[in-house]
Amino acid sequence: MAGIGRPVSIGKMVKGIRERHPDIIIQYHGHSTPGFSVASSLEAARNGADIIDVGMEPLSWGTGHADLLTIHEMLRDAGFSVPDINTKAYMHVRSLTQEFVDDFLGYYINPKNRYMNSLLIGPGLPGGMMGSLMADLENNVKSVNKWLVKRDKEPITQEQLLLQLFDEVKHAWPKLGYPPLVTPFSQYVKNVSLMNAIQLIKGKERWSMIDENTWGMILGRSGQLPGELGEEIMNLAKAQEREFFTGTPQDLYPNQLDEFRQKMKDKGWDVGQDEEELFEYAMHPQQYEDYKSGKAKERFLEDLEKRKAAQQGLTSVAMPQTSNSESNVMPQSMTIDVNGEKFKVQVAYGDAVEEAKAEASKEEPKPTSSGELEEITAPLEGKFYLTKDSSEIGIKVGDKISEGDTIAYIESMKVINAVAADKSGEVVEIVARHGDDIEEDDVILLLK
Amino acid sequence: MGREIKLALVYRDMWQSSGKYLPRVDQLVRVAEPIVEMGCFARVETNGGGFEQINLLFGENPNVSVRKWTQAFNDAGIQTQMLERGLNALRMSPVPADVRKMMFKLKKIQGTDISRSFDGLNNPVNLANSFKFAKEGGMIAQGALSITYSPVRSIIMSIWRINILN
Asked: Can you give the CATH number for the domain in which A406 is found?
């Protein structure tokens, strides 16, 4: 599925399945990121696949899938019977998809996702994950650089962090028992590796940020891992008194529909046609609450406006005549006109280095450890929550907390990370607000 | 001409593997008819994966989106498919059994024909539930093998997994 399967091996696999199960339908799906998918599609077809998945322009290739026209031609040339394509309708779909990109979706597509990337073959991360990975890295680089600049250290580029992440995946994956690198385990391995990489950049130890979902995988709560866990992971589990599970994973997660049905009744919410609203609430509780309250829409529109304004600012600058698709020929400086006055400016692309410097320098002074007050800061960027669901009660001013207590949660990189207090004391002020986006190192609360 | 090969357009995944969001329902409805007119697709991936959650994240109702977006394909006899993550169904963490069961029944009603189920660990126990629930819900159950490369895997092991699942 993930696009890292080697073509000949894919062919052997399809052949083996076909020989043992002549009557089942075999469908091949692969992402094009590392470049194997066209050859893999052919190998799959030659060895007995019935259906091949394709993407189409303007979103084929890159971190997406092999293009319809290419696969279509290749299969015909190889002697297979494939249906004709209505070219007029094809052009219509193509132009509509481009229209959607231009409308708002393009603001959320990292240009790097339009490229193929063979570096993924090394760490084995799935091609389909690169979309969210690059979006996450954009935020991570900003946060790390803010931390580094604040401490008079040299900022890093997104490229540097990406390469460090790849190295770290190679290190962490075996120790995590070689889970297949597909959703959500690819995300878990990537998150732990990224946290390790960031901790190492900060001069700290590996494995200090492992979210609860990843612990669930390590402990066998999703099923048995294919490989042995590394010694350091075993020691960490022992030190934290975590128990391993060998039963049926589904047994750990009891039925909850009645509970959500009651919650909806209490809130006066309609369960919807065929109880579909109840289903969505039970499947995505926090996101559904944000949708119902209108917060989700508000946040999205606000973010979209920011992105549009940023783009607008960029395009209003007179760009020299050059190809904007080749980063290596993009201008490093340009002259801009502000109210009739000309300024020569240096241009940075995507690294967020200058941005981090500016962010760090313009940052408003935050409450600091003055007098008896002490801060607890966010260990990573993301969305801040005092509780992870409505059954929990969040901390409040006056509560006494001890080092190691879970004080809040940060949703980052698709998982919920518990934030543990790194000091003890009485809560004087909760600085971060439930549901807000926060950055690494932001103050969450003040203690005395 | 040789053996027939069918094509599936993974429209949902095209967006999700490129960026953060997916088209709004009004946009999806506009593009559905021309996709049908292209005449070359036996299947279209319409939803599942992050589709439902992403709709909520940008303030849209996923139930409305799935019902409206699958309609043109249902009318044309093109099979619609969704991706689901076994124990994790449509999210990144394990889902209670009653919610998983309800998902298949509901998605069939909303217009999705095929459930493509994969389990991140290729765990036969988790996948067996997906197949059982999907069939009970009236969907076509499809199993997906998660292919990855490591010293603890082999082609033989992958085929062996398929044997177990059958």
From this structure: 2.40.50.100
CB contact under 8 A, A50 and B6: yes
**Predicted confidence band of residue A132 (pLDDT cuts 50, 70, 90):** low
A20 CB neighbours in chain B (<8 A) are: 159, 162-163
Q: List Cβ neighbours of A337 (8 Å cut-off, separation of 6 or more).
A: A318, A343
Mean pLDDT of chain A: 84
Q: Is there a contact between A182 and B22 if contact means CB atoms under 8 Å apart? A: no
Indicate whether A261 belongs to any domain: no
A127 and A207 inside one domain:
yes
Same domain, A146 and A84: no
At B157, is the pLDDT very low, low, confident or very high (cuts 50, 70, 90)? Answer: low
DSSP A221: B
Is residue A12 a part of any domain in this protein? yes
> Of A285, A261, A276, whose CA–CA distance to B104 is shortest?
A276
* pLDDT for A116: 84
- Overall domain count for chain B: 1
Q: What is the per-residue pLDDT across A223-277, written as a single tens digit (0 to 9) for each?
A: 989 889 999 999 999 998 999 999 999 999 999 999 999 999 999 999 999 999 9
Q: What is the least distance, in Å, from the CA of A367 to any CA of chain B?
A: 32
Residue B2 forms part of a structural domain:
no
Query: What is the complex's ipTM, to 2 decimals?
Result: 0.94
Q: Does residue B121 belong to any structural domain of this protein?
A: yes
Residue A243 domain boundaries: 122-251
Is B56–A288 a contact, with Cβ atoms under 8 angstroms apart?
Answer: yes
Which residues, 6+ apart, have CB-to-CB distance to B99 below 8 Å?
A255, A256, A257, A279, A282, A283, B89
pLDDT value at B135 more than 90? yes
Domain count, chain A: 3
Residue with tokens 């946060």: A143
Helix crossing, A37-46 with A7-20: angle to 10°? Answer: 30
pLDDT interval class at A319 (50, 70, 90) = very low
| CB-based contact B31 A96, cutoff 8 Å | yes
* B1 occurs within a structural domain: no
Q: Which residues contact A344 (CB under 8 A, 6 or more apart)?
A: A333, A334, A335
Residue B52 lies in a domain: yes
| pLDDT for A351 beyond 60 | no
* Same domain for A147 and A244: yes
Residue B70's domain comprises: 7-165
Q: Quick check: A13 and A21 in contact, CB under 8 A?
A: no
Chain B residues touching residue A115 (CB < 8 angstroms): none
Which CATH number do you get for residue B42? 3.20.20.70
Domain membership flag for residue A32: yes
Return mean pLDDT, chain B: 91
Q: Inspect the interface and report whether the beta carbons of A49 and B151 lie closer than 8 Å.
A: no
Query: For an interface test with A, which of B47, B56, B157 has the most A Cβ atoms less than 10 Å from its Cβ?
Result: B56
